[in-house]
Amino acid sequence: MTAQLTRVERKLDVSSGASSWDTYAGRYDELLGAELTAADVPTWLQRWSALDAELQEAGAKLSTHADLHTDDDAVQARYQTFVATVMPPATRTGQALIEKLLAVPDYTPAADFALNYRRFRDAATLFREANVDLEVTHQQQRNRHSVITGNQKVTLSGEALTIPQAKQRLDSPDRQEREDAWWALTVSDMEVAPELDAVMLDLIATRRQLARNADEGNYRGYRWKQLDRVDYTPADCRAFHGAVREEVVPLTTELVGGLARELGLDSIRPWDYNRSNLLDPSGREALKPFTTGAELEALAREAFAGVDPDLAERFDRMRGGGLLDLESRPGKMTHAYCQYFPVDNEPFVLMNVVGTANDLQVLFHEVGHAFHGFYSGDAQPLVWNRWSPIEFVEIPSMAMEFLTLDHLGHVFNDEELARYRRSQLQGVVAFLPWAAQMDAFQHWLYAEAPAEVGIADLDARWLELDKTYHPFVNWDGLDEGIRAKGWQYYHIFQAPFYYIEYAMCYLAAVGIWREARSDAAGALERYRAALRLGNASGVPELYRAAGVEFRFDRQHIQGLMAFLQEQLAL
Questions:
Q1: Measuring CA to CA, which residue among 423, 322, 405, 311 is closest to residue 367?
Q2: What is the pLDDT of residue 350?
Q3: Among the four 144, 215, 273, 395, which has the fewest Cβ within 10 Å?
Q4: Is pTM beyond 0.85 here?
């Protein structure tokens, strides 16, 4: 075990009592039993916040540890014990505390708590006792997805690879190598597809029941309220889907078609298309700026120092504190994310790096989330006021992908940096059709799909949408059943209705970068100021603080696509 991995294990270690409700129950009972007047509320909230932070941190560490050890039954069991025995009484107690707060006569929340007071009120309205235990089932079902995909293996030319290691081969300039890797990944995906089908059917049933218990007509309506989506409607999302279909799909088709012509390909096949890293038009090897996780950390640290010394110092805290686990290995879940430990205001980044330029971009993304945690935690004492509404939460991460672009001279030479920059800009364009497809699929699944929806229906709907939003990928002669399984994606299982936010925030991040082209210092200060506002401000206010508009309509998309086309022409 490396020194860094040892630090990670030490950071994720929690006391044996963390999985016992008895560890928390007495202190929550004290809060419930306290005499509470309007004058008492601020101090009482501080006590409640501190206890909630302790509980949240235990759950976050146990969950992260389980993601790092999907093949360890004891680690999985400890997390599931927490989910099954701690979260239900915690949820019930949280509801009782909210009701106690809402019943305080003559209480007017301070300005920095007014928004969350309203959210508490709305959450209390949505609460149903029947959903407490059902949420345990919901989490257990999602964990089944983590275990299945975390233990997934790929065999390529007799070599056993993790999913991220196999996906790296898709960036090869050798078309046969790409095709071999694609087929190896496809074989692996299709082997686990029946298991994931079964998980999805269970999730659909559970999510529909959650909605019925809360007297909502469908799960979209339930989730809309649960996510506190008050600044836009499902109709606005539908308009976004149409705008992407009309404005971005043709642009992506043109982009991909030009790439095919430059490479001498008659068409772009599935193994030729990686939306995160389009093929190099000159057929050059993919950029490989580092080999090990430690090398990546050092490269990233210098880039952060170029943007701002304080960012570098905070990244150093993560490096030395066991708050980074970057390298891919068997038994580790294959996604990337930023977790948060609120007691000490510490973010934790999990990745699966294999040495690609895209890994560098993903690290900037995830550490951008970490900076959000740091700055909002510094400025917002109450745990509920940290981070932000989800419609803003991807801006700190995506903007950091762009703000680092001018500070990579130590990583790439001029030619390589031009390639990296072009790939990143192309990635924004190529991402939007995927985001629209993901969101459109979920609107159908949770608001329009038939009562007896089956896997064949999911496959058929995904296939229809993929032909609409990715018509430039040639699947002729291939089994459409493979293409139809594209919905078996992390967010569909783990974070329902959390995807359009990536598109909203990517558009905003491009806007921040556009401003930074003429005022780098001002753009950075606005970025940091917006992060400090945390979850105490609404979505439009947060966007304004960052120097951009909260918009994702067709006209706005047109303007940003024109800007990206100008930049790609440079």
A1: 311
A2: 97
A3: 215
A4: yes
